[in-house]
Automatic annotation (TrEMBL):
<dbReference type="InterPro" id="IPR050570">
    <property type="entry name" value="Cell_wall_metabolism_enzyme"/>
</dbReference>
<protein>
    <submittedName>
        <fullName>Peptidase, M23 family</fullName>
    </submittedName>
</protein>
<dbReference type="Pfam" id="PF01551">
    <property type="entry name" value="Peptidase_M23"/>
</dbReference>
<dbReference type="Pfam" id="PF01476">
    <property type="entry name" value="LysM"/>
</dbReference>
<feature type="domain" description="LysM">
    <location>
        <begin position="31"/>
        <end position="75"/>
    </location>
</feature>
<keyword id="KW-0732">Signal</keyword>
<dbReference type="InterPro" id="IPR016047">
    <property type="entry name" value="M23ase_b-sheet_dom"/>
</dbReference>
<dbReference type="InterPro" id="IPR018392">
    <property type="entry name" value="LysM"/>
</dbReference>
<dbReference type="GO" id="GO:0004222">
    <property type="term" value="F:metalloendopeptidase activity"/>
</dbReference>
<dbReference type="InterPro" id="IPR011055">
    <property type="entry name" value="Dup_hybrid_motif"/>
</dbReference>
<dbReference type="InterPro" id="IPR036779">
    <property type="entry name" value="LysM_dom_sf"/>
</dbReference>
Length: 212
């Protein structure tokens, strides 16, 4: 039953998830808004009586990044700002899941016509895949399109996913440290990498650059 739970949880990472209405003690429950042509961070924020910085942060972005027509944004209800409690902050910046920084060939996207809940790295010289953060191996399995994959559970409801592996070198229940070896990439594919907080998909590039 526990194994099925993690399979379904992982599957949910790749599907377009409905916006949760469950109250969270550290964040305001968000509603959804579909970006229209000509919209801006500041214009949308003003419409929903929040700040542009809060709006961007909730969506794993910054106000310097462009918005895309028909992009789905999460919007905090009312006038309350989205904030993370001190306990929800990571104590260390995530490490690269690869030995060296590789080009991202497919980026994170919540566009309805082209959703992508993680990022796809280019296949580099090194095939070693490492844990980005310390945590517990909660699931290892195989899925068509993602080859062998590993899911790690971290503190405060964070999960990371590592796909397109040829060999997995950890076992379920194992505790790993940041940069510990997880496995070896498939010969013809780059690493698929995803980060979630509960069921909310975060932009992995932003997490790797600035942390949580």
């Amino acid at each position: 039953m526990l194994r099925l739970r993690y399979i379904l949880f992982f599957l949910g990472f790749f599907l377009i998830l409905p916006i949760s209405s469950k109250q969270n003690p550290t964040t305001e429950v968000p509603s959804a808004y579909r970006v229209l042509k000509g919209d801006s961070w500041f214009g949308i924020a003003k419409k929903f009586k929040t700040s542009a910085e809060t709006l961007a942060k909730l969506n794993g972005r910054t106000t310097k990044e462009n918005l895309y027509e028909r992009e789905l944004l999460r919007i905090p209800k009312g006038e309350e700002k989205v904030s993370l409690s001190p306990a929800s902050l990571l104590t260390e910046k995530p490490a690269l899941p690869l030995v060296q920084k590789e080009k991202v060939v497919k980026k994170f996207s919540e566009l309805t016509y082209d959703p992508h809940k993680g990022i796809q790295f280019q296949r580099g010289v090194s095939s070693l895949v490492r844990a980005s953060l310390p945590g517990k191996v909660v699931h290892v399995d195989y899925m068509d399109g993602y080859e062998n994959f590993v899911i790690l559970e971290h503190q405060n409801g964070l999960y990371s996913v590592y796909g397109n592996l040829e060999r997995i070198q950890v076992t379920e229940g194992q505790q790993v440290k940041s940069k510990d070896r997880l496995g070896i990439l498939a010969k013809d594919k780059g690493l698929y990498f995803q980060v979630n907080k509960q069921k909310l998909s975060l932009n992995p590039e932003r997490i790797l650059e600035a942390g949580i």
